[in-house]
Amino acid sequence: MRAAIVDDSKDDLQYLYDNISRYCTEHKVHMQIDQFDNEQKFLYAIKDKKYDLVFLDIFMNRVGGDRVARYVRDQWQNCQIIFTTASRDHAVEAFKVRALDYLVKPYTYEDLAGAMDRFEEVYDNFLHYIELKEGRQFTRILITDIMYVDYHNHYIQVHTTSNVVRSYMPFDKFAPSLEPYSQFLWCYRNCMVNMDYIVSVGDRDFVLTDGKRIPISRAMHHEVTQAYANYMFEYVSRRAEE
């Protein structure tokens, strides 16, 4: 996920960068943030880059944030725009380009966090991560990359699309880190599967996209398969509404 900050005040640019970085750290969000101290640099950059979120100061010396916003909207319909401005007099411009939010300087971290929360609500690919200690170092793992997690010989094993991350810790200490994410399902004791990677359900197991079979607890079979069916129904319903 990539975000851009465009503001010709270097102090405001740094303040916004610091607060977005703080939000990403506190909420474990993976986001690349590019900074531009004038709109022309930004317009040149977007010839080769696509942004998911753009913060624009309306009052800039050259092109102006409102005109840049219209250009962004013409290029990417799904890019979210958040205006930052010293005046409340530009709400009409924000409405015309379907801006997600409108932060009036000087805004607080709480104001910025509220705007980021709204971004998470409307953006499908919000990239959260967990952080595990692997050996002597900490490893960040994107939630969307986790296929399933199991437990072996006192080690958490996080199976991702590219590798396996192992961390020495009890499973009950690890499990709460995935509880906020509805796509994870307990399929047996000390094993959670990402339902987004399930391609079929058998009498005894789930089959994942890579062919791996994940056993389903006999005692919880009906409960587990019903939870998966409910998740898929909600997923299909959301896609139909879009």
Q: Mind describing the biggest β-sheet?
A: 5 strands, parallel
Query: Globular, elongated, flat, extended or rod-shaped: what is the shape?
Result: elongated
**What's the helix count?**
7
Label the CATH architecture of the largest domain. 3-Layer(aba) Sandwich
Q: Estimate the mean pLDDT confidence.
A: 88
The assigned structural class equals alpha/beta
Rg, rounded, reads 22 Å
* Extended strand count: 15
CATH-derived topology of the largest domain = Rossmann fold
- The overall number of domains is 2
Beginning-to-end CA distance, first to last residue: 21 Å
Descriptive account of the structure:
- This protein has 242 residues and is an alpha/beta fold.
- It folds into 2 domains: 121 residues, Rossmann fold; 109 residues, OB fold (Dihydrolipoamide Acetyltransferase, E2P) (Beta Barrel).
- The strands form 4 sheets. A 5-stranded parallel beta sheet has the order 2-1-3-4-5, sandwiched between helices.
- Strand 9 and strand 10 form a beta hairpin.
- 26% of the residues are buried.
